[in-house]
Write a structure and sequence with these properties.
Layout (H helix, E strand, L loop, with lengths): L1 H12 L41 H8 L13 H12 L4 E6 L1 H4 L2 H10 L8 E3 L13 E5 L1 E5 L16 E5 L4 E6 L7 E8 L5 E6 L4 E5 L6 E8 L3 E5 L5 E8 L4 E6 L13 H11 L3 E5 L2 H5 L5 H18 L4 E6 L4 E4 L2 E4 L3 H15 L2 E4 H6 L3 H7 L11 H19 L3
Parallel strand pairs: 1-13, 1-14, 14-15, 15-18
Antiparallel strand pairs: 2-12, 3-6, 4-5, 5-12, 6-11, 7-10, 7-12, 8-9, 8-11, 16-17
Helix pairs in contact: 1-2, 2-9, 5-12, 8-9
């Protein structure tokens, strides 16, 4: 099995990503995707995934003894993803990161490329969006709720945040949130993570008069599901000082989660309630988890290579143990630079961040999607600024994130076509 994995990875490492409009094919079977939208070439041809040299060895270390006839078991997760992409149905992606994810542009591009004609569910969303955050496919309007983010360490709620890292506290009895979506969802069910004192109650009402109620049992994070709902959906907390956490809106068609928090560093997971996060992963069963951190760690002024590596490995191991069927891909951040008097300056910690991400990926046998490398295809950071794809700070523009989403999808297709 190990030899066959080495041969497979060697063939992938030898590839150069195909030009715009063509996905790499191994020759024996029709490629997953013959062509896709023009965003893939706005700033040059996509480069593809970084595949660590030790990927085969690392994946082998993670595996149990596998029978000879199960020689491709180590890639079963990617084979499952490949099948769902071919069908344009059922793919379950969770994207967790910082401000590069928070605007939901990168993730929205993945939705548009992974599914046919808006035939997807919403996935996981924050109960209410913090300032300067959004979800493209669902909106929320609160009345009587305080939004609390795990970005900040002084909230008094460290260790209590559910999956995604944002929760909302009812400031009065009867506080409510109205959720709306333009998606033509059918057979929708919405699952809510809630917390309060035993006996505190919550009600969910849909446009079609569907109604579901729930009473807290344990005082810890719990979840309940309201089925047969149609938007708009109203969530009501009967009791002051009760909490709503992650909201998961699902259909059988698949989803793309978007859990990006402005300013987040990889150590943000230390502020999350791991029991609730694990419960979310086991419930939603993602096929693919993308982790995108590093930009704010480089900007923090207190970056530690050892600390960054330790925190990243801890997050990866936790996700792997609670979503054992999921493949994990690390996203290395876009160029962390600023312009001063017209001169671009890359932050000194940026190269260290990229090296540690490569080391972590090598240790755990994971693919890397390096957004800095992808930007070199269009003249680097300065070139992307000229193309209108990047701002002059550390962020990309809306079009830049949509372009990066196309680049990621191209890299994924190219890799899957070789399995």
């Amino acid at each position: 099995m190990f030899r066959k994995l080495q041969m497979l990875l060697a063939s992938v490492l030898a590839l150069s990503v195909a030009g715009c409009g063509t996905a790499v094919s191994s020759g024996g079977s029709e490629p997953l995707l013959a062509n896709y939208d023009a965003d893939c070439c706005v700033a040059g041809e996509p480069k593809g995934f970084v595949i660590p040299k030790g990927m085969a060895e690392s994946r082998q270390k993670r595996a149990d003894v596998v029978a000879e006839e199960e020689e491709l078991e180590e890639f079963s997760g990617f084979l499952n993803i490949s099948r769902k992409i071919r069908d344009k149905h059922g793919l379950r992606i969770s994207v967790i990161g910082d401000s590069h994810i928070a605007a939901d542009f990168f993730t929205d591009k993945l939705r548009k490329l992974s599914f046919a004609d808006n035939s997807y569910g919403v996935g996981g969303v924050f109960p209410l969006q913090p300032k300067y955050h959004q979800n493209v496919v669902i909106t929320s309007q609160g009345n009587g709720f305080e939004v609390i983010s795990s970005r900040f360490s002084d909230t008094g709620y460290n260790g209590e945040f559910p999956a995604g890292g944002v929760m909302a506290r009812a400031e009065k009895n009867g506080a409510s949130i109205v959720y709306r979506s333009s998606l033509p969802l059918k057979d929708m069910q919405a699952t809510f993570w809630v917390k309060g004192k035993p006996g505190d109650s919550f009600t969910v009402t849909g446009r079609n008069c569907g109604k579901s109620s729930y009473s807290v049992k344990t005082g810890r994070w719990e979840h309940f599901t309201a089925s047969g709902m149609k938007f708009p959906v109203t969530f009501t907390a009967a009791n002051k000082d009760s909490f709503i956490g992650t909201v998961f809106v699902d259909t059988s068609s698949g989803y793309v989660d978007s859990f990006g928090i402005n300013g987040a560093q990889v150590n943000i997971f230390k502020r999350w309630n791991l029991e609730a996060f694990g419960d979310y992963l086991r419930f939603t069963k993602p096929d693919l988890v993308l982790l995108e951190y590093g930009a704010n760690d480089a900007l923090s002024g207190s970056f530690s290579e050892k600390g960054f590596e330790k925190d990243y490995l801890s997050a990866i191991d936790f996700i792997s143990s609670n979503a054992p069927g999921a493949e994990i891909i690390l996203m290395s951040p876009p160029t962390v630079a600023k312009f001063t008097q017209g001169i671009m300056k890359v932050y000194p910690e940026f190269d260290s961040i990229r090296k540690v991400i490569e080391k972590v990926a090598d240790e755990r046998g994971l693919l890397i999607f390096d957004m800095h490398d992808e930007m070199t295809r269009g003249g680097g950071k300065a070139g992307w600024v000229k193309l209108g794809l990047s701002k002059r700070d550390v962020h990309l523009t809306r079009d830049g994130y949509y372009t990066m989403g196309s680049y990621f999808y191209s890299a994924l297709i190219s890799f899957l076509n070789e399995i």
